[in-house]
Amino acid sequence: MVSDMEIDPITFAVIKNGLDTIVDDMAYTMMRTARSPIVRDVLDYSATICDAQGRILAQAKTVALHLGAVPDAMTVILKEYDDDLDPGDVIILNDPYAGGMHLPDIFMFKPIFHEGNLQGFAVVIAHQSDVGGRVPGSNASDSTEIFQEGLRIPPLKLYAGGTPDRSLFALLRTNVRLPDMLLGDLAAQLATCNVGERAFTNLLAKYGVATMGGYFNALLDYGERLTRAAIREWPNGRYQFTDYIDDDGFDQGPIPIVCTIEVQDDHLVVDFEGSSPQVKGAINCTLSYTKSCTYLGIRCALGREVPNNAGIYRCIDITAPEGSILNPRMPSAVAARALTGYRVVDAVLGTLADIAPDRVMAAGEGGNTVICYGGYEGDSETPFILVDMINGAWGGRATKDGIEGVTNPSQNMSNMPVETLEARYPIRVEAYGLRENSCGPGEHRGGLGLVRQYRLLADEAVLQLRADRAKIPPYGLRGGGPAAPSRNILDPDGRAEDVPSKLTRNVRKGDVLRHEQAGGGGYGDPLVRDPELVAADVADEKISRQFAEEKFGVIFMPDSSEPDIDATAACRERSRS
Amino acid sequence: MDLLGGARIGVDIGGTFTDLVLSDVEGRTWFDKRASTPAQPEQAVLDGIVHLLDRAGLAPGDLIEVLHGTTVGSNTLLQKSGAVTGLITTKGFRDVLEIGRVRTPDMFDLQWDKPVPLVPRRLRREISERIAADGSIIEPLDEDGLIRTGGELVAQGVQSIAICFINSFRNPDHERRAEAVLREHFPDVAITASVSVLAEMREYERTSTVVVNAYVLPILQSYLQRLGDGLLDIGVSAPLLVSDSNGGLAAAQTAKDKPVFFISSGRSAGVVGAARLGRAAGALDIVVFDMGGTTASASLVQGGQISRANEYEFRAGISVPARFIKAGGYMMRVPTVDVAEVGSGGGSMAWIDDGGLLHVGPISSGADPGPACYGRGGDRPTVSDANVVLGYLPEQLAGGDLKLDVARARAVIERDLAGPLKLSVEEAAYGVREVANANMARAIRAVSVERGIDPRDFALAAFGGSGPAHACDLARSLDITKVMLPMMPGVFTALGMLTGDVERHFLTAMPGLLQDFKSNDLVVAVAALRAQAEAALGEENFTADQMNLAFSLELRFEGQDSELPILLPDDMNTVTLSWLHRSFLEAYEALYQYVAEGAVEVVNLRLLARGIRAGKLDFSKLVMTDGGEAIAPATQRKVYFGQEKAWFDTTVIDRRAFDGTGTGVGPMILESADSTIVVPPGGRITGDAMGNLQIDLSVEPG
Q1: Nearest to A229 among B354, B359, B561 (CB)
Q2: Considering the domain B79-215 in this protein, what is its CATH number?
């Protein structure tokens, strides 16, 4: 019996480190070999090793949200290809209704064999720059059914026994706008799977299949044990929090996401009853992604030591009503589902704020803003598709301020350098910086949001925008205030037209778009914030004097950057009464 | 007396100790290890030099070179003690430095602290100017605004100003002009334009690099000035050369101008020394392993060549080997010896988490209070405590007066580890070693496996205070069968410096598709860089036959972000388009193990120019003079070896017994004034004429 195997704590630590190293190696290979800026610069991909039952053993420090989406995809693969997996097979899928998330995310699975038997899978998910459909980038928030969003790939073998499927390659090449980039990134995914396969087989060879199997179980048990230990610290009870998405780009909104968490000793039951029914726009979020986001929110509150493996899932049950925005029916459009995912994370963290207040933060920027420009360069027939993602700000925390210029915690993405962007696309970036006064006030203030401003240099292009938090700003916690809402402005130095946060429209040469991102919410009463910290923010022009006075009750000495302590105390007293 | 004759001294300042090695023309060496003097680092250097000259019976005028590795740069970053620095950017880009690349080093950690930028926002100013992506000027430089802005920064107390404009790597005119204008108006302020340090694409990397340069510049400049003056005061007028992050040496003036190239001064010199030693000993493929009190580092030497990287991050002194993470550090895009570092050293603490998993590090007991066995108030088990319990370290450290308290080490391991894990004290202590070794193996993997290189084909060269005590176990965990322990492992970095060469780096951006590439453009670019290099090395009095120029062209597939360097042969006539294409595809496949397709892009032409120092120390002619009294007779003690899970009666012997052609078989402990070497059962020891030891682990103990 494997489960009765004696676990040597030292070998255990060595195998755990070994698995972490394998997924690190995989992630590094992907970054070095990828062709598209969205993968190589922004790092929108993930790398995972699963065992033969599809259970996650380790995931690299890449897009965190992919962690929870792998199990459902693995279930589909194991069901579809039961008894039909051979060495050299490579399977891809992107269909959100068959284990995928949204169409641009192509999952690749390589079964790993050792001594003739299936022992595990290398899994790499990468955001492809385009998979066809009505809008360049295949990511539009205003599609209304999945058939508009691009090429749907059910689980199919891209390679069978090492031989490429020419039909499938031809089909892919014919249906996307940038076939070379897609095939280049698929090749990078394959190279990444191969690195994982090689390293994993080496580990199996070193310790033996039976021993490794025992340690895999031990590793998942360890994840479960740490998770249960953390949950046991939390008070039993039923907790609820509601956060909102502004709208879906069609109807007025707001769209509620209602999260209920029941703490039952060392187990959590999470339900989303009361959340909005599925919507017309493309922000519906399949159940697998809803679960992924929920795991992530809870995972953030557990503490750093918990390993990134499937043991965590054993302690958490998640349900969402069928036909809701969090569990939509075919053929709802889902391309911009990431936005809803961010709000699920916000709602989960908001709920946890009543359970483990020192483990969460006030709401961050609300998820990255996605800005796509698609068109043709000059007179040529060379298409370009810029997929740019703007990250981000964290909300204030129990003992410290939020952070500005930081990835949303569900991602761990990077940003595209302005110089790289300008060298590759007919677009000039006119500003990239912190947005003053955008933080939510609090004893620990939220981070500032970012500003990014684009000028189109090509004759025309399709601009597609996916943002939120323009109507419902990021929430504060424990007396902290909300952050400034986001804004999207066309021609900011001229007619300054405010445009909606979900937008697809044609733009012409010289048109300028300015995105002002929401900041992070504040944590705790802003009237007890140390006036020196407020003064430092004023000196740094992160906030204005007026903002300092209105939100924090801090009054400055005349013609000085020193706070007036007496006047501040008096002002704060007035504000309280 | 050799015409090039004269004595040379190598000095390496570390956190705890300052190591010095003196060599004379006949290759005789003397070493000194003394406590560092952090407030005035030059003090220990000068005292050490006077001391060694005295012991060697030399006069200050006999010294012809002083070679120096210093942690002044890295300490300045670590302690945030740099100059008050201002940054001037293109309008719209004030916050590039603070935003960075927005990643976090860990997932799911909502309590992360982002490092505070070296220049606060109030000292970051924008001015009007703009260069387009193609290098054309869209908006002219506002010189009046620049002078006004400079004046405001100076009024705020700024001592050093960095300049970084968008797309300046394509057209440096605005930055150069701004640099000149500010220098003219503010002669007392250090001014650095990004293109003077790094003319490469990517605004964050370039901004961060120039900011580190500006931040450290006044500090390193003043330190080197004080050291130079101090040397003159003790009568040493020999030139001072400083070791850079890439392991090369450069005139002190270069370090004063471009300190960002010298942040990892010292650490890299050890790698260079090990590579050179390997060549002398006929070992061309080595994993270099350096383990001190708080960190351990690994680097790879392949075919005698050191691996190098073009960027790294300074992150509280510890770099996580997951190299794709850009987060949480001070990024420097400068050539560096590719060293992976982890927080495992002799002082690293061992602890158990809530799930019952044993961890070692990254917190270290440091020098104060130190490991529990030091008996100076340390109350937490460390790697050194485990080593004492297992019998690896003696109760009395050789050459020192520190007695190690075995009972105390046992007690803390029993209480904190063995009890909770339900293991024996020996098993727990061995576990600490195993986990520490696993962490250190990650550093080695980062520089080998991560690049598709199998460490089993390499020898492990180990040095540093704790390196020789862990080398064999670490080698076994990686299936490495050959371990090399150099002479004087405890001061090896200072020794290695004596063997180094002067290095200068040059770069020309050559962006374009390979298929459109004209061989003649390459010939012209090579000639231009060659002229620059020859002029620069000529200034340091190198003759043409002492110059070694290595050109490489960096290529990648169109769309990629990471280049591969292709070393160009001396005979440029053989460099054709098809040769370049083929070489790139081969290198790519070798690295990533798949055949890729697509258009190939040219990125940069790089030149590494070396000035070969005449009369530098030659390992093969080295004569050891230190070590004190006669060789002590061998003794016996009990030592626990975990692979065998048993105590062994183990011979403890003076390592000098192996100089020449001495041989032996483990288990054995070899002691010397600067280190303790642990040889497990079955390890076959061979000494060589140079004073190195080779340990062969290929034969499993029977």
Answers
A1: B354
A2: 3.40.50
